[in-house]
Amino acid sequence: MDTVANVLVGLVAALHAYILVLEMFLWEKKPGRGLHGFDAPMARATAPLAANQGLYNGFLAAGLVWGLIAAEPTGHDVQVFFLCCVVVAGVYGSVTANRRILFAQALPGALALAAVLLAG
Fold first, then answer.
1. Which residues are CB-neighbours of 25 under 8 A, at least 6 positions away?
2. What is d(CA 60, CA 84) in angstroms, rounded to the nearest whole number?
């Protein structure tokens, strides 16, 4: 179960690293604009907000990587903390911004969290 948990945590970390790149560096380009269907002027106007969100996603990714490489019991505890943050952020985002966030962020985080807790 440890291997499954580690793989899921790694995938969630990779997802958040991808979101960082998308929101911080590609927001005004086609991939970033396509995420929310923004035209160029709207993407330009919202780029600072997206970059801020991207930075937070980077912190989530960094925390999950820290949890993967830290010695026990710290690694487990760090993974649980950051996965809880991912789930809360995903649920909040789905309520306040876009329902897809529930499935794109909160669900993978919850699955990884369940695996980490089962691996104990």
1. 54
2. 10
- Extract long-range pairs of 112-115: CB within 8 Å, 24+ residues apart: 112/5, 112/8, 112/9, 112/11, 112/12, 112/79, 112/83, 112/86, 113/80, 113/83, 113/84, 113/86, 113/87, 115/1, 115/4, 115/5, 115/8, 115/9
For residue 1 the two structure tokens come to: 């179960």
Name the nearest CA neighbour of 55 among 9, 4, 20, 92.
Answer: 20
Note if the bond before 73 is cis, omega within 30 degrees: yes
CA atoms of 59 and 79, how far apart (whole Å) = 13
Give whole-number Cα distances, 45 to 22, 63, 97, 117, in Å: 16, 30, 17, 41
Q: 57-75: per-residue pLDDT in tens? A: 999 999 999 999 999 999 9
d(CA 86, CA 120): 19
pTM for the model: 0.93
